[in-house]
Amino acid sequence: QDLVRLIGPSMRLYNYVLQKCKNLFVATNNVGYCTLRAELLLALLDNGVSQIYEKDPCYKVASCIDSCIRDDSIDDRRMKDIVQALEKSSEKTWIQDLSMLLRDPYF
Predict the structure, then answer these.
(1) Which of 41, 59, 63, 93 lies 20 to 30 Å from 49, alpha-carbon distance?
(2) For 73, which DSSP code?
(3) Residue 101 near residue 107 (C-beta atoms within 8 A)
(4) Mean pLDDT of successive 10-residue segments in the chain (107 residues)?
(5) CA–CA gap between residue 74 and residue 67 (Å, rounded)
């Protein structure tokens, strides 16, 4: 929550934190950086910082997976939303970001 307050609505700070997480994860292979990346995105979603999370290429997948975990089920609509989000992305770095989210042991 403190990190969300520090970042505020600044896309530049958010991208800086994400880049640091990626670089540190690559350098150390510490999955804690994957957890930080996932938790930061989910905290932005929870706090309604839409000007940032809507620009994150992983937010739709993360939101759907988080809802499935919270509800302890995967319904057809959420599965369809996840598949559509996966099919729509064309950003090369999106795969790196998604792999970090999926590597988070708590996600």
Answers:
(1) 93
(2) -
(3) yes
(4) 90 96 96 95 92 90 88 89 78 81 89
(5) 9
